[in-house]
Amino acid sequence: MRLGLFALTALLAFSSARADPGAPFAQGWFDAAVTNRVAWDFQGWACAGGAGQTRQSISIVLAFGGAGSGEPTQELDSATEMRPDAASACAGDPMVGWYGRRFAATPSLPVYAYAKSLTASPGALQPLGGSPITPRVWHDDIVWRNVATGDVYKQLMNRFEIVTGRFIYNEPSLAWKIVGRGDDDGDSTRDLLWRNDTTGDVFMQLTSAFRVLSGQLIYNEPSPAWQIAGSGDYNGDGKADILWHNSSTGQVFVHLMNGTVIIAGQHLYMEPSTDWEIMGSGDYNGDGRSDILRRNRVTGQVALKLVGGSNGALFVADKVVLTWPDLEWKIVGSGDYSGDGMADILWRNEHSGTVFLHLLWGGAVTAGQAIFAEPNPYWKIVNTSADYNGDNKRDVLWYHEQGGQVFMQLLDGLNQPEGQIVYVEPDLNWQIVPMR
Ligand SMILES: [Ca+2]
Ligand SMILES: [Ca+2]
Ligand SMILES: [Ca+2]
Ligand SMILES: [Ca+2]
Questions:
Q1: 410-436 burial by CB neighbour count: b if 16+ within 10 A, else e?
Q2: What is the C-alpha to C-alpha distance for residues 59 and 372, in angstroms, rounded to an integer?
Q3: What is the pLDDT of residues 309-324, one digit of tens each?
Q4: Which terminus in the chain has less CB density within 10 A, N or C?
Q5: From the CA of 104, how far away is ligand 3's center (Å)?
Q6: 3-state class of 265 per DSSP?
Q7: Domain boundaries along the sequence of the chain
Q8: Distance CA 113, CA 75 (A)
Q9: pTM of the model
Q10: Where do the H-state alpha helices sit in 311-354?
């Protein structure tokens, strides 16, 4: 997984930030990943060089403002932990690593990192790193799983740029599959939902931008007929819930979640026949709750179940969207691709390769046209639920099954999408985990 390249990048960062003898702190680097408009993950390190400084005597402060004056206007966070993999960077001096997550109501302000001495005069702050962390709006990431080793790897994206990439987990048993990526604890970072194909166990991992925070077995459903069909927010509390569909009986069930805790389970509705497949889950009427997109695999009819109601008493309302009887056209994604807050429908013709976008308003089609064509069948659309450039329009990720290229397309409604290859992974054991 291009480990060599990332290791090299890290070494370069370390060597340019060696401890400066005599100075209380050497400059360290910091990473900042803005996971949406109001939440940031930070991590970095500093060397506690100089007389009397130890690892325990400094902390790191993240602060708004401070440009020019060198003083922050608002303390955000402080050091929390060592980063063992960065220890060599301090050339024998104590090193403090830090990791933080903060929420802020004013994300447009730049954020600076400072090192603070706990033993020197109170409030003494040293700028850490030379440039402000400029908050950026939502960037979704790319998560990979290696189907040989079980490794999970995450790439943080800023449009076509890979900001950083890290191994975040290893699950050697390949019976465990990542089946959902929703924001389960409401911290604006997508978490990982796993299911074990053999036992039916369901395991949720809460993750930050860079690492696994916690994980817990939350449920067991031994019947393989029950599949996790989505992880949207069906009760509108900002936390992702788990949608189940029984492919034998047509039953649709939702687990309302609070982090790793099931707060309620409810039968939602029954599909009229097994011809109806759940194609996606998004908010089609702009009420802040996920709805359910279905298609009849025989007639080609597309219809919604609009979800309403309160906790433990959800109900659904039917809405027919359209009928597209040509079954060569497959729904490959559903999300808001136009930025109006309502989910749309993305199609691809499996014969011609043409990609077609239906824009919806409140669940009704308002416009539709072909926006792209890729006739090469080895190019597969692997993710249609992420926003890689923070414009509140979901984008499309393609993967070449033979060459390992990853092509990112930034969608903008019916306009021609901008796209480029962002990565090549020659080891085809690495597979991109779709968001659902
Ligand atoms: Ca919810
Ligand atoms: Ca809705
Ligand atoms: Ca839309
Ligand atoms: Ca976008």
A1: bbbbbeebebeebbebeeeebbbbbbb
A2: 51
A3: 876 689 999 999 999 9
A4: N
A5: 27
A6: strand
A7: 31-45+57-64+97-135
A8: 10
A9: 0.74
A10: none
